[in-house]
Design goal:
Helix content is 49%, strand content 15%. The protein is α/β, with parallel strands linked by helices. Strand 9, helix 12 and strand 10 form a beta-alpha-beta unit. Helix 4 packs across helix 6 and helix 9 crosses helix 10. The structure holds D-glutamic acid.
């Protein structure tokens, strides 16, 4: 039997739309409910505890919409809150770190991988661990052996990229100057693969690409996340029949602002009908305590 319930997707703001876009492309028959917590963004400079609390509230909001799956379309929330969310949710939860890490180890030829992310993601060390685990999987399977034996990782926090993305300044001189400054050490490290380990960063991909040059492969984990979502829907017998596809959008800040910034990226008249909601009313202390 088809499962026509929507997929719930959240991020601290518009960054998760880079994941939503790939989900829509890979699974056009699936309905979606998107929540961007723009009112409380950025998450990347918040504490571990606050990121968990916000993520639980974001998930609670989506669960009220009878979603069949939660996609944490945010690396910061994935690194800090995935375990808590997966343990608290009654539906499958998909995170974005491991799919991105897997794409990176498959892409590199010289084993030098850059990870750019929010401060909270970098300091958690979760992304680097994920890349090392995925590299070990390849070594065990005898794939991309030379690169994996020479694996070297550099991490760089690029917090201003999130503000630039939220502002819509994706491809101008301010974005370029900022990128040049952040990416200098990453370039000097000689990476051939750069993971955009924050879902806001693919919005700045042109600028980042200009700075890194054509020989560096940029990894947008959204594509790999969409295939994980597809696989999990099939495994759980949850695919829709595509008969009535709906796209709902919610933000915790101004709906017009959200739509104006997001429209050039999503296209096709989306997002539309965005509604403003507050999610801090959800009391998630029970789940937080269960985790402690
Ligand atoms: N888009 C989010 C991420 O992938 C977080 C950006 C932020 O709010 O700092 O990490």
């Amino acid at each position: 039997m088809a499962d026509n319930r929507p997929i719930g997707i959240f991020d601290s703001g518009i960054g998760g739309l880079t994941v939503l876009r790939e989900i829509m492309a890979a699974l056009p028959g699936e309905s979606t409910v998107y929540f961007g917590d723009n009112g409380r963004a950025p998450y990347g400079n918040k504490s571990h505890r606050t990121i968990i609390q916000y993520s639980l509230q974001d998930m609670s909001f989506l669960l009220e919409h009878d979603v069949k799956m939660i996609v944490i379309a945010c690396n910061t929330a994935s690194t800090h809150a995935y375990k808590t969310l997966a343990a608290s949710s009654k539906v499958p939860v998909v995170e974005v770190v491991y799919p991105g890490a897997e794409a990176a180890v498959n892409a590199t030829r010289n084993g030098r991988i850059g990870i750019i992310a929010t401060g909270a993601t970098v300091s958690s060390g979760v992304y680097e661990t994920a890349v090392r685990q995925k590299a070990q999987d390849l070594i065990n399977a005898g794939i991309n052996r030379d690169a994996m034996d020479n694996l070297s990782i550099i991490q760089q926090a690029c917090p201003l990229f999130v503000s630039l993305a939220e502002e819509g300044w994706w491809d101008d001189e301010i974005a370029l100057l900022t990128a040049e400054r952040y990416l200098k050490p990453v370039k000097e490290f000689g990476v051939d693969t750069l993971v955009l380990a924050c879902t806001h960063y693919p919005l700045l991909a042109r600028t980042i690409g200009k700075v890194m040059g054509p020989d560096v492969k940029l990894i947008n984990s959204g594509i790999s996340v969409a295939s994980v979502v597809k696989r999990k829907l099939i495994e759980n017998n949850m695919t829709s029949d595509g008969s009535s596809v709906t796209r709902e959008f919610y933000t915790s800040d101004d709906a017009d602002m959200f739509e104006n910034v997001a429209a050039p990226f999503l296209g096709r008249g989306l997002p539309s009908g965005t509604r403003t909601v507050t999610v801090d009313r959800y009391d998630v202390s029970k789940w937080e305590e269960a985790r402690a």
